[in-house]
Amino acid sequence: MMLLTVADVMLRAVSNQPIRGTFEIIELLLACTFFLALPAVFLRDEHLLVDVIDPIAPRWVPWLRRFAEIIAIPVLATMAWEGWKAAQETLVFHDVTSDLSIHRILYWIPVLFGLIGGALAAVVMIFPKAEK
Questions:
Q1: Residue 94 in contact with residue 103, Cβ under 8 Å?
Q2: pTM here?
Q3: Pairing with 129, which of 2, 12, 103, 113 sits 20 to 30 Å away (CA)?
Q4: Calpha distance 124→104 (Å, rounded)
Q5: Burial class of residue 32, CB neighbours in 10 A (0-12, 13-18, 19+)
C-alpha cells in the first residue's frame, strides 16, 4: 500500500499521470489488512492498551480483561449485523466504486469475516488459559 501511494505521488509529480484507482485499491487493501487481522489480535492478546490500573490494582487486571472481552462480543456482533445489512444493500443496488468499478461487496467481505472472527476470538479469550 505504501509503495503504491509513493508511486502514485511520484508519477503525479513527475509526469502528471497518477495511477488510476489508487485510492480505491488502497481502501480495499486497508479493509482487508485491518479487519482480517482483527481475530489474530484478539487471540494473541495484542490490543493497544493503556495500563493505568495495572500498577494500582494488579489483581483486577485479569477480570477487567475478561470484562472487556465480554463487552467486545456484542459490539462486534452488532457491527457485523449492521455490516451484513449494508452489504446486502450493495448487492441489491449493484454498488461499485467510481473509478475502477470494483463491486463494493469486495469491501464488505473482509470486514464481515474480520468482525465475525473477532467476536468468535473474543469468546475464546474469555476463558482463562491453562498455565504450562
A1: yes
A2: 0.85
A3: 113
A4: 31
A5: middle
